[in-house]
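> example.struct
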């Protein structure tokens, strides 16, 4: 138990601030639909293929290197375009340009997303956030084990009674016990998204072999003559009751256009239903229906919406907000109290050594022949 306490304390002191950053950025992102106040952000969604086709054409006109266009949703009533050079734009549902940016730093929701998912360090940062998720799992479990010995002294507080090391530790212990069930779920879903190999291993009993969709690679590339209304109409016909969520243009010549749809049973906001089309003829060359996939895929699809509060309505979002703010307090105060205690211990040791040296010198002076 002593070793467990030592590992919990030292590891928390080292990574606590990073966990606080993830908690704060994630909490703010939960409510992005409330603070993106651009014109049209609150418009009701219209999934008319003709309107969507005009919006695709408008996004291509604004920047020919369009990578993808995420269609308006109930959260944000604007289409979001992403271009190959890292720039982007918001379009109203009638195709009118609302805002344009050259980098993610010009839009707070974009750099906050990058901070939360990548710590502003690209793929390396993504791996770090996954490791932090696994560490948070370990903190919650070890913290509950350590708390169990002192459960009779439990007293819930939102804030430490005093800013002393002992008071902060008691607050950390009791707040952690309350927040751990939710934090375990958040940490698990976040880590599994970063490390699909681990989730694949855990869910392997529910999986069965699936064949990849064979797609052609010799199609005609899209051009100014591409009829985007026809593309959207034919894609919608493949899944008439599904909601169109995202159009992705091929990164390589000869590849098809991909359009993601969301069916009623899917939790993921952008869905995992795919339709691939020939850019030249608007003919369908492939589809992928998650209703025909295995239970492992169905479980994996739930990770993001649970983690990001995309299901469960206001109640679940409020619970995630509470757990995110709890993580901010747990991480920040753990780092502060740990390093404050380390600094105090170092100062005490130095003071002790100086006192011993002074005493020794005094004794030597008192015992010298000339005294």
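> example.seq
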């Amino acid at each position: 138990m002593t070793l467990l306490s030592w590992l919990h304390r030292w590891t928390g002191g080292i990574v606590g601030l990073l966990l606080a950053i993830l908690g704060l950025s994630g909490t703010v992102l939960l409510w992005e639909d409330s603070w993106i106040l651009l014109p049209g952000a609150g418009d009701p969604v219209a999934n008319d293929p003709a309107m969507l086709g005009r919006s695709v054409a408008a996004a291509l006109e604004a920047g020919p290197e369009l990578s993808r266009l995420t269609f308006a949703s109930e959260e944000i009533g604007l289409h979001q375009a992403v271009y190959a050079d890292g720039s982007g734009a918001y379009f109203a549902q009638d195709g009118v340009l609302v805002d344009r940016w050259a980098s993610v730093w010009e839009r707070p929701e974009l750099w906050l997303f990058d901070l939360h998912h990548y710590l502003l360090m690209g793929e390396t940062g993504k791996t770090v956030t996954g490791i932090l998720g696994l560490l948070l799992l370990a903190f919650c479990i070890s913290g509950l084990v350590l708390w169990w010995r002192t459960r009779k002294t439990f007293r819930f507080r939102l804030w430490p009674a005093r800013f002393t090391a002992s008071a902060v530790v008691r607050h950390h212990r009791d707040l952690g016990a309350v927040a751990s069930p939710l934090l375990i779920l958040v940490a698990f879903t976040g880590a599994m998204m970063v490390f699909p190999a681990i989730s694949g291993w855990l869910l392997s009993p529910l999986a069965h072999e699936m064949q990849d969709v064979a797609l052609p690679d010799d199609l005609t590339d899209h051009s100014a003559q591409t009829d985007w209304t026809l593309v959207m109409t034919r894609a919608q016909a493949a899944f008439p009751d599904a909601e169109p969520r995202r159009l992705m243009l091929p990164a390589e010549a000869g590849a098809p256009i991909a359009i993601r749809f969301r069916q009623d049973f899917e939790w993921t906001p952008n869905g995992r239903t795919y339709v691939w089309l020939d850019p030249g003829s608007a003919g369908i060359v492939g589809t992928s229906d998650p209703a025909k996939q295995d239970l492992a895929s169905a479980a994996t699809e739930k990770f993001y919406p649970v983690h990001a509060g995309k299901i469960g309505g206001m109640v679940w979002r409020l619970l995630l907000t509470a757990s995110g703010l709890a993580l901010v307090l747990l991480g920040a105060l753990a780092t502060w109290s740990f390093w404050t205690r380390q600094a105090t211990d170092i100062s005490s040791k130095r003071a002790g050594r100086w006192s011993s040296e002074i005493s020794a010198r005094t004794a030597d002076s008192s015992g010298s022949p000339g005294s």
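> remarks
The first strand starts at residue 66 and ends at 70.
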